[in-house]
Design brief:
Distance between the termini: 54 Å
Order of helices and strands: EHEHEHHEEEHEHEEEEEEEEHEEEEHHHH
Structural class: alpha+beta
CATH class of the largest domain: Alpha Beta
Radius of gyration: 22 Å
Number of domains: 2
Largest sheet: 8 strands, mixed
Number of helices: 11
Bound molecules: 8-demethyl-8-dimethylamino-flavin-adenine-dinucleotide, P-hydroxybenzoic acid
Number of strands: 19
CATH superfamily of the largest domain: FAD/NAD(P)-binding domain
CATH architecture of the largest domain: 3-Layer(bba) Sandwich
Helix content: 25-40%
CATH topology of the largest domain: FAD/NAD(P)-binding domain
């Protein structure tokens, strides 16, 4: 008879559920601080590395990746951006980040690449990271030894932890470890979705373009000097199969239309997907010895480019708190974790809601509503104070 060794030791200090950006960065920071941890990820490595999502990194996220030794390729291949362009009513206005924020800027570096870099480091010299290991439940949140229950290789296993961190996204299971009634969720669902495409064509603008249009919002972003990432506002329930490539390009053309001779370059579309838009915050982000980080605790609509950056911010605050505990025995950082993160989370929630509602056209939108949006956009174009408020939020407020 053969017995297979369990895939992980039976206990660890910090059990991390979910190997997305929040879980991987937290594991990396804890490993660098000499704190024992293990990451359990439901999906396989290829799936996690290819999931097409966010593209903009704030200074604070770049700093965190650098301090964790995971920024070598980012520093080589990431595109530094000093501004974005807003378009409305056939006009364009550029927001210059460094001059409005005292030198802040952002990086275009896809979430897929951040995840690949962190996974490679983790597998090379990090704590255990187990793919194909779905967690079914976390028990004992209110005890001093919570337990993660997971499957791997056709068998059920347990991992006993000092703390469990749920980095398992919006549909994760860790939140369910907290007794009913102890958490409160605040939520808003938007009456539209984003249709995102990847195209093998150099971006038609050096910087991102956020366009208000009576036909709906459009965004021009990029993945590299040769690959464009573009989004269209569409009704919820839109099936990408109903959109031919020609229809997509025609619609993008119409929405980015601006006075002057700007042209949108077309190329082969290599990926199409539709994503719903929602805002959601679960409070508090800690109960007993279970903590929530990233999308497991909060969701923002992507218009402010904040989702990935919030996830990284949570990981940084949490790693600091665990380090303090290991060094001094104090739980002050862990006790403050939820309040510390929620201040930043709510700021990002407001900014993401503001960008979304200012730039999208709701199904029941009146001409009055559109005039209000134009007034707000005109104000941003005319007032350095209004522009600075946008720039400071976009380029990122300090972590913690
Ligand atoms: P993630 O990236 O969702 O990672 C969670 C991980 O947990 C795993 N998991 C489990 N593992 C074990 N057991 C279980 N029971 C598990 N349940 C789940 C999942 O497989 C996954 O690997 O959350 P994290 O780390 O908090 O990172 C947050 C960011 O991913 C997210 O905020 C952004 O990507 C949001 N977002 C976007 N943000 C932008 O700024 N721009 C975008 O264009 C953009 N596009 C997107 C997005 C989020 C999307 N989702 C979540 C629907 C597009 C999509 C489709
Ligand atoms: C992206 O490149 O995917 C992206 C960029 C900015 C956003 C949202 C998505 O606001």
């Amino acid at each position: 008879m053969t017995t297979t060794a369990p895939p992980l030791p039976a206990r660890t200090t910090v059990g991390i559920v979910g190997g997305g950006p929040a879980g991987l960065l937290l594991a990396r920071l804890l490993h660098r601080a000499g704190i024992d941890c293990a990451v359990l990820e439901a999906r396989d490595r290829a799936y996690v590395e290819q999931r097409q999502r966010a593209g903009i990194l704030e200074q604070g996220t770049v700093d965190a990746l650098r301090s964790s030794g995971a920024a070598e390729r980012l520093d080589r291949e990431g595109l530094v951006h000093d501004g974005i362009e807003l378009r409305w009513d056939r006009r364009a206005h550029r927001i210059d980040f460094p001059s409005l924020t005292g030198g802040r800027r952002v990086w275009v570096y896809a979430q897929t690449e951040v995840v690949k870099d962190l996974v490679a480091l983790q597998l090379r010299d990090g704590a255990p990271l187990l793919f194909d290991a779905p967690v079914s439940a976390v028990s004992g949140a209110g005890t001093d030894r919570p337990v993660v229950h997971y499957a791997h290789g056709g068998a059920e296993h347990t991992l006993a932890c000092d703390y469990v961190v749920g980095c398992d996204g919006y549909h994760g299971v860790t939140r369910k470890a907290v007794p009913e009634g102890e958490l409160r969720t605040f939520e808003r669902v938007y009456p539209y979705s984003w249709f995102g495409i990847l195209a093998d064509v150099p971006p038609s603008s050096d910087e991102l373009v956020y366009a208000h249009s009576p036909r709906g919002f459009a965004l021009l972003s990029m993945r590299s000097p040769r690959v464009s990432r573009l989004y269209l506002q569409v009704p919820g329930g839109t099936d990408p199969a109903d959109w031919s490539d020609e229809r997509i390009w025609d619609e993008l053309d119409a929405r980015f239309a601006v006075d002057g001779d700007w042209r949108l370059a077309r190329g082969p579309i290599t990926q199409k997907s539709v994503l719903p838009m929602r805002s959601s915050v679960t409070e508090p982000m800690r109960w007993g010895r279970v903590l929530l980080a990233g999308d497991a605790a909060h969701i923002v609509p992507p218009t402010g480019a904040k989702g990935l950056n919030l996830a990284a911010g949570d990981a940084v605050v949490l790693a600091r708190a665990f380090e303090e505990l290991a060094r001094t025995g104090s739980t002050a950082g862990l006790d403050a974790y939820s309040d510390t993160c929620l201040r930043r989370v709510w700021r990002a929630e407001h900014f993401s809601w503001f960008m979304t509602t200012t730039l999208h056209t709701a199904p029941d939108q009146s001409a009055f509503d559109t005039r209000l949006q134009f007034s707000q956009l005109d104000r941003i174009a005319a007032s350095p104070h209004a522009a600075a408020e946008l720039a400071l939020n976009y380029a990122g407020l300090p972590v913690g």
